[in-house]
């Protein structure tokens, strides 16, 4: 696919890089993650995958907005000033909860049935792993890391307008106002009690 500019409101740049992926569903899941978490491009290496834009997993047709580009060497996809963040179960890596995401970064993920080469790890600005029991598949890893980046940023929108824009068109369900309000007040009171106890200690 040829590269197009993604219409993103975010001032930061994020590239998702997939090392020689073999599963079309995983690439489709990564494409959908790019759309959900405002990544500007998905790149991949290797010759095991050649059906990226026809994926059933890409139900939001993200490929029409986010470029999906093949590179012989993924490091060639790095843009000026962009940090390289490798994501894999690598000894000595930083656990994702402790990681501070750079504003502009390419997140390079290992293949489903292998790992990132040592020479690439040696060039990384950061190496991160998701602390799970066992390993997730590629698409799940991409989604977790991209959500972590979004959650730690100050750029995400938190209101009903985002829900209306993002949900399936058949979803018209609402939280009952009375029960929601009771839960909100209960949570506020709990936080106030905790704060008071901390002041007393």
Can you lay out the helices and strands and say which pair or pack?
Layout: E1 14-18, H1 24-36, E2 41-44, E3 68-70, E4 83-87, E5 94-95, E6 105-109, H2 118-121, E7 126-129, H3 138-152, H4 160-166, H5 177-200
Parallel strand pairs: 1-2, 1-6, 2-3, 4-6, 4-7, 5-7
Helix pairs in contact: 1-3
Please explain how this structure is put together.
With 201 residues, the chain is α/β, with parallel strands linked by helices. The chain has 2 domains: 14-152, 3-Layer(aba) Sandwich (Alpha/beta knot); 160-200. The protein is 31% helix and 14% strand. It has helices at 24-36, 118-121, 138-152, 160-166, 177-200; strands at 14-18, 41-44, 68-70, 83-87, 94-95, 105-109, 126-129. Strands 3-2-1-6-4-7-5 form a 7-stranded parallel beta sheet, with helices on one face. The longest helix is centred in the C-terminal third of the chain and has 24 residues, at 177-200. Mean pLDDT is 84; it is low at 1-9.
Describe, in short, the structure shown.
31% of the residues lie in helices and 14% in strands. It has helices spanning 24-36, 118-121, 138-152, 160-166, 177-200, and strands spanning 14-18, 41-44, 68-70, 83-87, 94-95, 105-109, 126-129.
CATH superfamily of the largest domain: SPOUT methyltransferase, trefoil knot domain
Counted up, domains total 2
Proportion in helices: 25-40%
The gyration radius over C-alpha positions equals 20 Å
How far apart lie the N and C ends? 61 Å
The CATH class of the largest domain turns out to be: Alpha Beta
Q: Specify the overall morphology.
A: globular
Secondary-structure element order, N to C: EHEEEEEHEHHH
Secondary structural class: alpha/beta
CATH architecture of the largest domain: 3-Layer(aba) Sandwich
Portion of residues in beta strands equals 5-15%
Sheet with the most strands, sense and barrel status: 7 strands, parallel
CATH topology of the largest domain: Alpha/beta knot
- Could you name the ranges where pLDDT drops below 50 across 5 or more consecutive residues? 1-9
Q: Record the strand order, biggest sheet.
A: 3-2-1-6-4-7-5
Number of strands: 7
**Separate helix tally:** 5
Calculate the mean pLDDT score and round it: 84
The assembly state of the depicted protein chains is single chain
């Amino acid at each position: 696919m040829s590269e197009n500019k993604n219409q993103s409101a975010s001032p930061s740049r994020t590239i998702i890089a997939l090392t020689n992926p073999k599963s079309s569903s995983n690439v489709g899941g990564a494409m959908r993650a790019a759309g959900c978490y405002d990544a500007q491009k998905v790149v991949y290496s290797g010759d095991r995958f050649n059906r990226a834009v026809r994926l059933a997993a890409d139900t939001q047709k993200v490929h029409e907005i986010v470029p999906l580009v093949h590179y012989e060497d993924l490091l060639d996809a790095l843009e000026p000033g962009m940090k390289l963040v490798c994501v894999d179960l690598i000894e000595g890596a930083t656990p994702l909860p402790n990681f501070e995401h750079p504003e502009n970064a390419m997140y390079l993920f290992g293949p489903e049935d292998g790992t990132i080469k040592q020479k690439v790890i040696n060039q990384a600005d950061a190496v991160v792993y998701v602390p799970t029991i066992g390993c997730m598949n590629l698409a799940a890893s991409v989604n977790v890391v991209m959500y972590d980046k979004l959650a730690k940023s100050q750029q995400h929108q938190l209101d009903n307008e985002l829900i209306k824009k993002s949900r399936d068109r058949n979803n018209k369900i609402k939280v009952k106002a009375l029960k929601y309000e009771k839960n909100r007040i209960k949570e506020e009171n709990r936080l106030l009690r905790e704060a008071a106890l901390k002041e007393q200690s």
